[in-house]
Design goal:
Structural class: mainly alpha
Shape: globular
Order of helices and strands: HHHHHHHHHHHHHH
Number of strands: 0
Low-confidence stretches: none
Strand content: under 5%
CATH class: Mainly Alpha
């Protein structure tokens, strides 16, 4: 109970920091007045622009934390993460098609669908490459993920150069690929909240299977888990979670790696506790990083993906070194 209270306090502190941070800093009192309906221009800007963006950042972070915990559970690999496994890259290919190719429908209506298909296809491609190479251990999956991910980055870059035109600014696409929370309308935020709630419910339904899978596939089968069917369903759900996060936040790296590790240190490996705590910690990380992205270099804004990469790169190196030594 004490751990959950502490994590809740971390999340609330990150939320307050993110709402106050920006090109122009606000005080908690100003934020409270804006929420209470203060008619001043500053209060209206806070409530109509900054608050929806901050809440969207928290939801995207929760989705990234969830997806990382699922991938680490599926592959029984502490280095598994949507970006490193190519899932985020696959989702970005789908999103780039939605944004750059004239499909005759509003781009955002197909962005999530194509992102999901890209993430799902990329994840299974990494697994297939690792199996063809005769290895599914941490290093094998990591190398396969890097290979697939770099190929997808090249394909996406070629698409951006070939398909961007006067109606679609290359700078806009580039900033999206570097990661950044899109400020939604209140209706868009409500849709993201509903999708996040559905994702959390679907992911929690996987918790027992992920616990059994952690014992090994043979043991999981002995306990009655249909391993192949469960893996297909789990990868499908994980890809959907990644797609939603990419649709609203672009490519935000390493959150899916860091959040589950911190959660595991706090609550242990049982997924019924690990999954929601990973979501909460992922939300807190993105809230803080998004606040820093808006506040560190005014009036410009640093891409969110650069902030998370600076924080996550050393974290990943330490984990990889520890993994290789064991």
């Amino acid at each position: 109970m004490r751990t959950f209270t502490l994590i809740t306090l971390w999340l609330l502190a990150a939320l307050v920091f993110a709402v106050c941070a920006g090109h122009v800093w606000a005080t908690p009192i100003q934020v409270a007045r804006a929420a209470a309906g203060d008619p001043s221009l500053q209060a209206r800007l806070l409530f109509e622009w900054r608050v929806p963006r901050v809440l969207a950042a928290g939801l995207v972070g929760a989705l990234l934390g969830l997806s990382g915990a699922i991938f680490q559970g599926i592959f029984r690999n502490p280095l598994a993460e949507p970006y490193l496994l190519g899932s985020s890259g696959g989702a970005s290919i789908g999103a780039a098609i939605a944004l750059l190719v004239p499909l005759g429908v509003p781009s955002f209506s197909v962005l999530a669908v194509l992102s999901f298909l890209g993430a799902w296809g990329a994840t299974w491609s990494v697994v297939a490459v690792a199996r063809l190479a005769g290895t599914v251990d941490a290093v094998g999956l990591l190398l396969a993920g890097v290979a697939i991910g770099q190929t997808l980055i090249a394909v996406r870059s070629l698409m951006m150069l070939a398909l961007s035109d006067d109606t679609m600014n290359l700078q806009v696409i580039l900033s999206w690929t570097l990661g950044g929370i899109q400020t939604p309308s209140w209706g868009g935020l409500a849709l993201l909240a509903v999708l996040t709630a559905i994702a959390i419910a679907a992911v929690l339904a996987l918790s027992r299977g992920l616990d059994l899978l952690g014992l090994g596939e043979e043991q999981a089968r002995a306990f009655g888990l249909p391993v192949s069917r469960f893996l297909n369903r789990a990868v499908l759900i994980a890809a959907a979670v990644v797609a939603i996060a990419v649709a609203w936040g672009g490519l935000v790296m390493f959150v899916g790696l860091i959040a589950p590790h911190i959660a595991r240190w706090q609550v242990g490996p049982r997924h019924r506790q690990l999954l929601p705590v990973s979501a909460a910690i992922g939300a807190a990380i993105v809230l803080v990083c998004d606040g820093l992205a808006r506040a560190l270099l005014p009036p410009a804004e640093i891409p969110l993906g650069l902030i998370t990469s600076i924080a996550g790169g050393p974290f990943f190196i330490v984990l990889l070194a520890r993994r290789l030594r064991t």
